[in-house]
Amino acid sequence: MLAVLLCTTCLVGCVQAVPPDLVAAVEAIDQDLIALRAPETAPEEYGQFVRQWALLKARTQLDDDVIRWPWESSDLEKDLRWLYVMGERTVSQLHDRQVSQQRATQAKVTRLEDQFHNVATRVEAIDGRILLGEKGVQTDLLVKQARAFLEQKDYARAMQAAERADHALKAQASLLGQELGRYADESRISYWQTLARQTIDWSRTHQAAAIVVSKAERELSLYKGGRKVLSYPVRLGFNGMLEKQFQGDGATPEGRYRVTDRRGQGQTQFYRALALDYPNGEDRRRFQLAKRSGKIASSKSIGGQIEIHGADNERLAQTLGCIMLDNPNMTVLYESVPVGTPVTIVGALTKQNAVASVLTQLDRGKEET
User: Fold this and answer.
1) Region at 127 (left for phi over 0; alpha for psi -120 to 50; beta for the rest)
2) What is the pTM of this model?
3) Less Cβ around it within 10 Å: N or C end of the chain?
């Protein structure tokens, strides 16, 4: 009878040495830490938690069948509660840190995407895509990587990809500045202005036609008697903003030329064409000097066959170094220009030209990031 009473009393008043709900709570904390990437983002704190949890879990398994009176203290329970509190504090800290990282990374990636879009648009506007080559594609991939890591909540790698993309954008801006900086050079612009003014003066003096092409604005203007009578938009070579150096570089030459031939349909692969006397004496002198200095490989040739021409079809919508007009505009120009007409091709005619404006914007973008 006494044994039955003791057993009944124990069943009513005794408790397990380790409360199951406490063990489950610590298990949940462990899962929360893993979800918060604690092994990566807080390895020291997580390592300490895991070591303590492994020890206490082993003790829990040993004491699983042990019972005690409610008023009896349990060191194991105390240790588990301490671990729970420590883990909960770590979870809270990591959550706050993650939220902060998320906001910072989100802002960085969004700003980077906007900047990349703006740079790409500006580069396209000045035909700088070919100049950059694979750099633009590589930067695009980095920007997309940053976004992908952000969506995966891998903020550290997202930030790393964003930093690499940011560095790549600055490198692109520097490269464009090196290659196209002459469009912002006051002395070069002054020289181009002099060439254009002399051509217009010649037109006025001889009461004849003359052509001035501004590469920065992609504009061809026809003068008669020193007065501008029309202006048409043009397309340049695939590297048209550069000054032509050798055959195949895709650049459009700069300097003073003359129309040497008027080629109608059947005489040119294009709709109609005005052949220019490129290379002239100045072009040849500059080419030979560049070869001797090693700036141009000895295997390169100077090239030729530079024309002002119309288009033939969509496959020829991009010229290799010439100046291209839409066919209706080419018809008007062709009928207005005789052989011998001066054609002056310059980089830009004003300090506030399109290329200089883009370079300024890119420089500001470098400073802001």
Assistant:
1) left
2) 0.71
3) N
